[in-house]
Amino acid sequence: MSGTKVYIIGVGIHNFGRTDGVSGLDQGVFAVRQALADAGVTWQDIQFAYGGSDSAGNPDTMVDRLGLNGTQFINVKNGCATGGSALFSAQMAIKSGEFDLGLAVGFDKHPRGAFDAKPAEYNLPEWYGDAGYMVTTQFFAAKIMRYMQLHGISRRTLGMVAEKAFLNGVHAPHAWRREPVDLDVILNAPMVSDPFTKFMFCSPGEGGVALVLASEKKMRELGATPIQLAAATMRTRPPGSFEVFAPSIDIGGGVNTATRLASAAAFDIAGIAPADIDVAQLQDTEAGAEIMHMAENGFCADGEQEAWLAEGRTRIDGRLPVNTDGGCLACGEPIGASGLRQVYENVIQLRGAGGGRQVPGNPLTAYSHVYGAPGVSAVTILKR
C-alpha cells in the first residue's frame, strides 16, 4: 500500500523487570512522557494514540495523567503481538494521510509464574488444558523437540542463544537480567520442560514503551532525526501452520506460518531482502523460538542455525546481530510492551546510541518480529 511515509521521532521506555509500588499504567505514562520529550512535542500535540496491555488495565485511562484534551485513544489486545499490533495500527493512521502525529504505547505488570491461559479463550476443548498444553513452557518444549529432530539442532545451540542474551543484557539499562550466565550453568540448570532449563525461558514481567510517530511533513517541520518506519505488517495463521496452542499438526504441515507471511509482506513493502538487514530483534519467548524465527523470518534456512550460533554470526559483532538488548530472555516479557521494546531497541541502534551493545559499522536497517498466541505475528522494518 502506498501513502504517506511514516517516521519514528520519539522513543521512551520504563525499565523492564519488577518495580514494586509502580503500576503498569504508571510505567506506561512514564514511557509516554519520555517519548514526548524525546520528540520535542507535548501530549496536546498528539492527534491519536493506540495502546496495548494484557493484564494491567486499559491504556486509554492514562489520559487522566497525560491530559483530558479529547485525543482519540484506542485500546489494542492481541496476545504477545499486542505491541506490534498497536504500532501497525498507529502507522496506518498516518500512512492514510488522516493524521500527522500519533502515539503507540504498551505496558504490562504480570504476576510471577507462567501465563495462565484458558482453553475456551482459544476455542479449544477442556482436555487440551487437562493435558497440560495450555502451559506454554510445555507447548514450546514439544514444538522445539520436533524442530530439533527435523533439522539437526543441538541442545547446546539452545544454550548459546541464552548465553548471548544475557551477555547483551549487561549493556542494556532497561533489561531485567543484567549479569552474564556461563553456558555450562545454562545447560546444567534445573530442567523446566525438556529440553529447556530455567535459563532458556523468559519470565512474565513489567515494563512500558512508547513511540511517537509522525508523517514526513511533520518530521521535517520538527527537525527530527529521520528513522523511517519502512514497513509494518501483521498476519494471523494460515492453514496447516503449527502455532501456539495448536491441538495438532497436519502431516507435511508447518511450512507456512503467520511469521513467514508477515515477514514476506514486510520485505516486499520495504523493498529490501533479509540480506539487507543490519540488526534484528526476534521473538525469543524461549531459546527455541529465536532459533525457529531466524528461519521463519528468512535470515537462514532451517538447520543452518547450528552453524550460525557456533560461528557467532548473531552476536553484536556478527553478520546479523540478533536481540541486541538481550531480548525477552534478558528483559522478560510484559506482553503489552514487549513488541514495542524491540522497535525501541532498533531506534537506539540506528541512532548509534547503544553503548556497549551498539552494533558496529553504522547500521542503516533494522528488523523486529513479535509473535503471540494463537498464531499472530507482527514485523517492522526501520531505515535510517
TrEMBL record:
Q: Which domain of life is it from?
A: Bacteria
- Matching CDD domains: SCP-x_thiolase
Per UniProt, residues of the Thiolase C-terminal domain are 257-382
Which InterPro entries does the record cross-reference, listed alphabetically?
A: Thiolase, Thiolase-like, Thiolase_C_2
What name does the UniProt record give this protein? Thiolase family protein
Source organism of the structure: Novosphingobium ovatum
